[in-house]
Amino acid sequence: MPIQIVYTDVAGKRNHEVSAEEISIQTKPGITAIERIKLAGRDAVAVRFQLITDYAPSVGILNVQGIMIISGERIDNILVGEGKNIDLLKPAEERVFQAMLQDPLILSINLARDLKLPPPISSPKILLGEDSPRITE
User: HSE of 11 in the Cβ direction (CA atoms, 13 Å)?
Assistant: First the structure.
């Protein structure tokens, strides 16, 4: 199921200086619309999405919006319902959210860096103990 992403809006705002105090970061992916489309004469699905990162206290906000085009697969394997009452089948929905947390999240990370905001995801923590591997000469 190939997914192509087209960004429609990328915005970020830094409200004030980021201090050393505790900052809570919440990144929320969401689907805003789903529709059947024709792409080069073939059936496809357009999924509008947004990825919003809020900071508390309110030091800034990141907002990435776009459209994911799903093609190369039977529509019956992607969608259920008709007209305005369509929804993604669970495997397609999982794939859309995985895609949202890949390229759009990287875009958000870069935007946060440019605005000197904390990244929208936590960095992995590495704990080293006495038995940790070491390179010695």
Answer: 9
Beta bridge partners of 60: 14
CB-based contact 24:55 (threshold 8 Å): yes
The Cα–Cα gap between 104 and 121 comes to 12
Interacting residues of 9 by C-beta distance below 8 A, sequence separation 6+: 63, 64, 65, 66
| pLDDT, tens digit, 9 for 90 and up, residues 62-85 | 999 999 999 888 888 899 888 778
Task: Give the whole-angstrom CA distance, residue 34 versus residue 19.
Answer: 40
| CA-closest candidate to residue 36, choices 92, 95, 93, 84 | 84
- Is the pTM higher than 0.70? The answer reads yes
Residue type, 3: I
Helices (H), the chain: 90-100, 103-114
Nearest to 112 by CA among 50, 62, 59: 62
- Report which residue type is found at 107: L
124/80 Cα distance (integer angstroms): 38
